[in-house]
Amino acid sequence: MSPDVTILYDTIRWEEKALLEAGKKNNINIQMVDCKKLALDLEKKPEDYGVVIQRCVSYYRNIHSTAALEGLGIKVINCLNTGVFAGNKLFTHMLLKKFGVPTPDATVAFSKESALEAMQTQGFPRVIKPTVGSWGRLISKLNGIDSADGILESRENMYPIYQIHYLEEFVQRPPRDIRAIMVGDKIIAAIYRISKHWKTNMALGGTAEPCKITQEMEEMCIKAKHAVQGDIVGIDLMESDEKGLVVHEVNNTTEYKNTVRVCKVDIPSAMLDYALKIDK
What we know:
Blueprint: E1 5-9, H1 14-25, E2 30-34, E3 51-54, H2 59-71, E4 76-77, H3 80-86, H4 89-98, E5 106-109, H5 112-122, E6 126-129, E7 140-142, H6 145-155, E8 165-169, E9 176-183, E10 186-194, E11 207-210, H7 215-227, E12 232-240, E13 244-251, H8 257-263, H9 267-278
Parallel strand pairs: 1-2, 1-3, 3-4
Antiparallel strand pairs: 5-8, 6-7, 6-8, 9-10, 9-12, 10-11, 12-13
């Protein structure tokens, strides 16, 4: 029996297990495929995958498997462009600006020297982020020239992607941010991610509370989703003291465990329902 939906993963998290359980509950034939065990013959007609929900954590495994599957004529959610654009903070920033979505001010520098010069001109604190990365890893708050010099020096000896210095303003805001889960053109649930630390990532110990969805938030998130050509995405927003709501990240393979837990919304079933409708 051919699958209705294939879940392509490289790490089994709560979210992938929840999609499988939602399939059983809704009589949807789910196929689970470990991307680490996948080999695609690019010269042959592929087997039947149904519609693929891309859940690979690895940015490079994610975009390359999506490119191969799409090239073979298979529908993948999210598409290759979403994986590329949302997976890179610089690309996302430029597209958000193009679509009129408020976002934190940012600078990109291509050497340690130009990054230091930019920060001396613009002032501190600044937040340095790898253009590709997740879970708050390798994100640092730079409070002055000495800390900036040391962190930039270490990055100059890393893989070339870390030598692209993406510098963001430190947004003055309440001790929280917002994660909104978009399925199609609708926010189906949103949470506050609250932390005493300036990083609010749940992976770093933040706590979650339900967030009321406003018209302003939904309109902003719809624009952000379209900016990266997404279908199912998680959008992270901050409540800037100066600018109001700003979008600071769009997540291609968003995590939603805590959103389901605190909002009591069946996000996995909504994802599967959307995938089946869009594949028709």
